[in-house]
Design brief:
alpha/beta, Rossmann fold, 5-stranded parallel beta sheet, 5 helices, globular
């Protein structure tokens, strides 16, 4: 895959998305990263972390999911009404139905409990997501 389009989606304060952007930037410095936040704060955090472009809201998620090769974000981006309701059913469907590969960070939040995931903490999972992306892209 030559110079893939990478989409990072987050909500709330954008903390996970910010860390994902930074980890992907470190692992793949030349990557083209689009950040889409469910709200402006999430988008701003990801842009500050080094995303190449950003957009906000439901329609931005739907459009970006059609134009990307890989989607990264917390697992809540595929669960309607998750992340305190910021992930709309349309957003979750856009991510789930996208033809892109998805790398999802398991994260217990908002009544969604993920079992079968070994410890290691959020930072380790984010580093692992960036490493999986680099391996997937053959870099």
């Amino acid at each position: 895959m030559n110079q893939p389009n990478i989409l990072i989606i987050d909500a709330q304060g954008g903390g996970i998305g910010r860390q994902l952007v930074a980890a992907v930037r470190q692992e793949l410095p030349q990557a083209r990263i689009t950040a889409v936040g469910a709200n402006g704060a999430a988008t701003a955090a990801m842009l500050k972390a080094g995303a190449d472009q950003g957009a906000t809201g439901e329609n931005a998620v739907a459009v970006a999911c059609r134009k990307t090769d890989v989607i990264l974000g917390p697992i809540g981006i595929v669960i309607a009404d998750s992340m305190l309701g910021e992930i709309t059913p349309r957003m979750a469907a856009a991510v789930a139905q996208s033809g892109a590969k998805r790398i999802l960070i398991p994260f217990d939040h908002c009544d969604n409990i993920i079992v079968g995931v070994a410890g290691g903490g959020l930072k380790a999972r984010i580093r692992e997501a960036a490493a999986v992306l680099a391996e997937m892209l053959g870099q």
